[in-house]
Amino acid sequence: MTGFGVARVAIDSPLPQLDRLFDYEVTEALRGEITVGSRVRVPFGRGAGLSDGFVVELVKESEFAGKLARLEDLVSPVSVLTPEIYRLCRAVADRQAVTIADVFKLAIPTRSVAVEKKWLASGAPLDTTPIRRIGTGQRSFVFVEPRTNELGPIWVQQLVSRAIANLEAGESTILVVPDYRDQAVLLSELSKKTAAENIVDYTSQQTNSLRYSAFLRCLTPAAAVVVGSRAALYAPVTNLGEIVIWDDGDSNLQEPTSPYSNARDVALIRQSQTGVNLLFAAHARSSEIERLVEIGYLQDISIPFAVPKLAISETNARVDSLAWQAIRRALENGDSVLVQVASRGQSVSAYCSGCGDRAKCVNCAGPLWIDSQNQPRCRWCNAHNLGFSCPACGDRGLKQGRAGATRTSAEFGKAFPGIKIIESNGENRLERVPTGKQIVVSTPGAEPRVDGGYGAVVLLDCNELLSRDNLRASEDAIRIWSNAIALMKSGGLAVAVGLQGFLGQKFALWSQAELAQHEYQSRAELRFPPFIRMASLSGERDLLSKVLESLPEDIEILGPMPVTAKNAAVDDWRALIRYEYSQGGTLATTLKAQVLLATAGSKRVSAKSGRAQRPIQIKMDTVI
C-alpha cells in the first residue's frame, strides 16, 4: 500500500481501556517497510516506555484532531496479523467480553528472531494472498463408524482423506483434534499420503521456535494441512477450504483461561466470516452440536454403517460372566483386550478403618484415594496424607474402597495367569501397545491404540461415570465409551457392565442421535445450556452488585452467592446470568463497559499466586 501516513495500531495490552485502535504517524523511513499486520512498538501515555502492538490499518490521514505520536520502532516487517485473523480475534473478543489482547496470545505465537530471519532469507512473500471465497460453505456434522482396521482408526482415515482431497484441489485444511495422541496419529497418517512440506504441525507440544516456524509456513500461499488443537483455528492460512473439528465435546477444546472460548465457537465464527466448509465429526454428538442440527444450522450428513457388537449387562457385579466370556474369547483368538475403568490408583476412595467414615484431606477436607504407590492422596488438592488421623475416632488406619486401575490390573493378573497386563492412566499414558494376547487396563481418555484393533472392549464402572457430580455426566460417559469402543476391530465384542434403563437400551443399539436428542431436550426443559447461554461473573460482592444493577430487566440473574476459596484474602462472590443467544452481543458489550466503570482504579491480587488479577472475571459461556 502506498500513499499512507498514518498507522492504526492495536496495542497488545490486557487493559480494557486500551482495547481499541490508536492512530500513529508513520515516519518517512518506515513507509517502505511497514505493512498491515507488522509488529511495532509505540509510545503510549506519559511514560517513556514503548508498548507492543500490531498494525491493523494504514490510512492516508487520521480523524483525530490533535497531534499524533510517531511510530518509529518497527519490530518486524512480516505481516503476522493478517486482516482475516484480526477480524476473527476481534469477533472472539467481542463475543467473550474480553480484550483482543487475550485472543492475540492464542493467535500469534512468540516471535523467534532466528526463525524469522531464516524465513525472510528464503525469499518467502511478505504479503499474504487474499482469501479465495468459495461461497457460503457447507456446515455439517457426521457420525463416524466406531471401528479400527489394519489401516488404523476409521475416523483418522476419513479426516486424512478429506484433507488430501482439499490439498489436491489447491485448498488448505485445518484439522482440530483435542488430544496430543490424536494429533500424533493424524500427522503420522498424513506423512504417508503427502509430502512433508504440505503438512503443518501446529501442536502445542513443540518448542517456541518450531511453533513460530509453523506459523510462518501458514503465511505462504502454498496449500497445506494444518494439524493442531485450539490455537490451530487461528492459523493464518490464506487459501483455507475447510475446517474439521474432531470430537468437539472433549474438554480439551475448551480454553481454560481468558477468553474462555470453545474451539467449536471459534470455528463457527471463522466459518461465518470466510465462507469455508466446516465439518464436525465424532462418534457421539455433543448437546451443542445437537442444538445446531435441530435448528438447521448444521446438516447431518451421516451415512449408515455397521454398528459395533455391543452387549449391555444389567448387573450389580463389577465384572460379570458376560465380561469374563468376552475377555477369554478374545485372548483365545490371540487378540488384545481393552478394559476401561473409571479411576486410577489402587482405590477410588479411602475410609477410616476404625469408624468407617470417608477419609478427608487434612489440608482442604477433600476426599482421599489410594494411588498406584499405595499412598493416600487428596482428589482436590493432590496432597499426600501420610500422617492421616481420623477426626472422628482418632484411628490412623485406612481401608480401601472400590478398586481403581492399579488394583484392577492386579486382579486381572491373578485371574489370567501368564497373560500380559498393561496399565495406562493419566500419570502413565501410553499411545500405542504392540499386538498380541494381553489385557490393557485404562482410565478414560488414556486408552492406547493397538494395530488392527482390540478383540474385545469391556467397560467397567459405568454407574460410576454416570453418577459423577456433573450435569454433563451422561453426555461425557457416552462420548468416553464410544471412543473406547471405536478402538475395537471388526467382529470384536464390547461389553458395558451395569448399564441399565433408557441409556443402556439406546447405547446397545448405537442410537447416538436419539441419545443426543434426549440429552438436549432434558436441558431445554430446565433452561440449561446449550438451550440458552449462561454467563458467570466472579469478584467482590460490592463490585458485582454495581455491574448487575446496570443490566437490562429481561436478563435473568441468579445470585450473587459466596464462593469461598481456600486461603483466599477475600471472599469471592459469583453470579450467573441466563440469556438468549440473540442477546449475546448486546450483553457482552454491556458487561465489558459496566465492568470497566465499576472497577476503575480497583486492584486485586490472587491469594494463591500473588499475581495481579482482574477485579471481576467474566465468562460468557459457563460450562455446566
From TrEMBL:
<dbReference type="InterPro" id="IPR042115">
    <property type="entry name" value="PriA_3primeBD_sf"/>
</dbReference>
<dbReference type="GO" id="GO:0006302">
    <property type="term" value="P:double-strand break repair"/>
</dbReference>
<keyword id="KW-0547">Nucleotide-binding</keyword>
<dbReference type="Pfam" id="PF17764">
    <property type="entry name" value="PriA_3primeBD"/>
</dbReference>
<dbReference type="GO" id="GO:0043138">
    <property type="term" value="F:3'-5' DNA helicase activity"/>
</dbReference>
<dbReference type="GO" id="GO:0003677">
    <property type="term" value="F:DNA binding"/>
</dbReference>
<dbReference type="InterPro" id="IPR041222">
    <property type="entry name" value="PriA_3primeBD"/>
</dbReference>
<protein>
    <submittedName>
        <fullName>Unannotated protein</fullName>
    </submittedName>
</protein>
<keyword id="KW-0067">ATP-binding</keyword>
<dbReference type="GO" id="GO:0006310">
    <property type="term" value="P:DNA recombination"/>
</dbReference>
<keyword id="KW-0238">DNA-binding</keyword>
<dbReference type="GO" id="GO:0006270">
    <property type="term" value="P:DNA replication initiation"/>
</dbReference>
<dbReference type="GO" id="GO:0005524">
    <property type="term" value="F:ATP binding"/>
</dbReference>
<feature type="domain" description="Primosomal protein N' 3' DNA-binding">
    <location>
        <begin position="8"/>
        <end position="109"/>
    </location>
</feature>
<dbReference type="InterPro" id="IPR027417">
    <property type="entry name" value="P-loop_NTPase"/>
</dbReference>
